[in-house]
Design a protein that fits this description.
two-stranded antiparallel sheet; 3 helices; 7 strands; globular
């Protein structure tokens, strides 16, 4: 089991997410990469695992996958514009979006 979260807490947190949109993000070559993902769900309580299914044609998924870790951002109902931005191919998806990693903070005024 992960030292950070127990099965009960994991169930409670993911139980609030029945359906919706997420942004799956990671760092590739020192730059953020990400995509909109609708297929996100709990896979196992112990160990606490999630799963998501990127599209076969996603050009962002290989970049996120190569990062070795991901961040799942659950979107609110009023974040449709952000979901649309991250669903585009070739766009500068992080333009105007504040983001950070443990070693870098960048806020560009979303």
């Amino acid at each position: 089991m992960s030292p950070g979260i127990g099965p009960g807490e994991f169930r409670t947190v993911l139980g609030h997410f029945a359906s919706g949109l997420t942004l799956i993000t990671g760092i590739h070559d020192g730059k953020p990469a990400g995509f909109t993902c609708q297929s996100f769900f709990s896979l196992s309580l112990e160990p606490p695992l999630i799963a998501f299914a990127p599209g076969k044609t996603s050009s962002s998924w290989p970049k996120v996958a190569s990062s070795g870790s991901v961040c799942v951002n659950i979107l609110a109902a009023d974040q449709e514009a952000l979901a649309r931005t991250f669903s585009q191919t070739g766009a500068d998806k992080f333009m105007g979006v504040g983001w950070e990693t443990p070693t870098r903070r960048a806020t560009t005024g979303w």
